[in-house]
Amino acid sequence: MADGLYPLEFPARLTGPLAVTRVTVVPMDAERVLPDHTVIVEDGRIRALAPSAQIDVGDAVIVDGSQRWLMPGLADMHVHYHDPAEFALHLANGVTTVRNMWGAPLHLALRQKVERGELPGPRMVTTSPIVDGPGADGRTIWPGSTLLDDPSEAERLVRRYAERGYQQIKAYSWLSRESLHALGRAAAAAGVRITGHCPNGITFEEAIAAGMSCFEHLTGIAEGHLRDGFALPDVKDPERLVNLDTLRATSEGIDFDAVRRLGAQMAAAQVWNCPTLVVYQQMSQDRAAAMADPRLRYVPPARIRSWDPANDFRLQSVASAWDEWLDATQARIRAFKRVLSILHEEGAPLLVGTDTPNPFVFQGFAVHDELANFVDAGMRPYEALRCATVEPARFLGESTEWGTVEQGKRADLLLLSANPLNDVGALRAPEAVLVNGFHFTGADLARLLEQRATSVRTAAPLPSVALGGVGEGVQVVREGTLVERVSDGEVGCVAYRHLHLPDGRWIVEERYANGVERSRRTSRLSLRADLTVERAEYERETTLGEERCELAWSDAGRYEVRLRDVDGAELRFEHDGPALVPSEQLAFTVMPLLIARAPAGADRVEALSIDGGEPRVAAVAWSPAASPAEDELAAVARIMRHGQRTEQHYRVHRDGALLALEQVTWMGRRELVAST
Ligand SMILES: [Zn+2]
Fold first, then answer.
1. What pLDDT is attached to residue 406?
2. CA 468 to centroid of ligand 1, rounded, Å
3. What is residue 4's predicted lDDT score, i.e. its pLDDT?
4. 3-state DSSP helix/strand/coil percent for the chain, to nearest 5?
5. Pairing of strands 272-274, 212-216
6. What's the pTM value of the predicted model, to 2 decimals?
7. Which residues touch 391 (CB under 8 Å, ≥6 apart)?
8. Residue 511's Cα: distance from chain center in Å?
9. Which has the closest alpha carbon to 259: 229, 218, 208?
10. In this structure, which residues have their CB less than 5 angstroms from ion ligand 1?
């Protein structure tokens, strides 16, 4: 999209060599410093590193490093990062590498932008989409995860993700034992790691045997490691991850001797942990204190609203015992800190990660909070810093590329005003950051942060949703615009038009702009007189590029889809089966059409969706609800897709126009309301 690709300005990439002179290098290859050295970087690499007296800086741009320390850039090994503009927050905090933990094509596109030097950084490694099993209600924990309920599907899934460019497979809590083992075999064959939550009811030992080689958040570490008299809730308890019984059993009952044996095993097998203690801390703060955090100025209002526990689906079950839950969470943090020190003492490999942007886990900034946790757990600053530099590089198999200050390695470097080996606090607000061939002075970084704060405060206007003209002889049956709100904040706008052609076919056109994602989708459905989909196409403009998708009913009697994804990948899919009506996922305004024109007595139908280019069948059922006004209809639609269930409340004018649509999403209550 032309407007606001990256709404922040940043310095151009360096065009020649740059020398940091007379600096104390903290190489991170050992606990040592190299005083009065000069480092020459060129084209994003460290070209030379030597005592200042022995080096000729030639015509390099000089950065005076006297009284300064130079160390490798930091890696945050557990982030969720969707908005490219947030690069500012990472870089201003010295984070030059991130591992994104719920991959989507936009992350593949973002990674490319950084590789091409169009965006300075941080460099990105991304896992696959979340692969989860079905909970008791058949759903994955997070809407939008990939459901793996048939272990025989694991191989195809892993192969597809690996080929697509996702570097690791993200496993989640509801995976069955059989599915985890199948994923493990598939991942070994494809040469990718499985990382994520140790699934419910499975011990770390068994998950390791199945092939998991990195665990996030210490989730489930109490399984099989409780002292006598303590027990975790039933495996299928839907609230198992957050409920008080889990927290209490973990904090009071965890068997630290068993954890020590596990730590020794993980050291021997080189199995990793990314404990993300900061996410537990930030989510369990006193609300008033959390809302007074000055870092909120860098967070978009829509996200702050989603951070309200009242809007967080994960916390609904504990809302009634909030204070007790906070206490229990604090106790578990103390237990986990002890687990972290035991893992460290046993030599189990560890990674610094934050799980930003979970509530009050601030992008970039949070990595310093987590480093402080590592120190608090008994590590020397050097040991903690290794877990954000050398160790992540080793974990990713990129030790020859980055992680230390060494000739030939990437020049992703931080210039600091104090020695980080004395205090990791020296890393907050670096004096300069070199990344990917870019050089940010302290003033550049401050300007980036200021720009970010301004762009968050003054949201850019939504792109136009105006639709094009209508052809001759075409009857516009209805048209309108809808405003999208999430948790009462306005985030988007939809314009739509339903056309009826002389031959009985329907055209549904929609243009939808979303201000949170800064994206715009234009869709056009061509429906037969019986409302089955003949053709559907959409084009999605994002800050990272365009996605274009065409689906058509073919002469061979099936749907064929061609997708050009946001990262440029060309994909094709097919779907055999009868022609289907469109689901709500193809267009917001089709449900009223379906409801209004369904044969008498019909209240369920199989409908077509496209998910990342893949055609999917959704079971849609609806039931009437009390009508708010005489000329209106109300209905509740329940939409079931593989592992997902959505409930949408519709208010429809008797002429078929959509008046309001409401649903509860993980971002909070979402509604589309006809604008007057
Ligand atoms: Zn996460």
1. 98
2. 41
3. 45
4. 30, 35, 40
5. parallel
6. 0.94
7. 349, 350, 351, 403
8. 25
9. 218
10. 101, 355
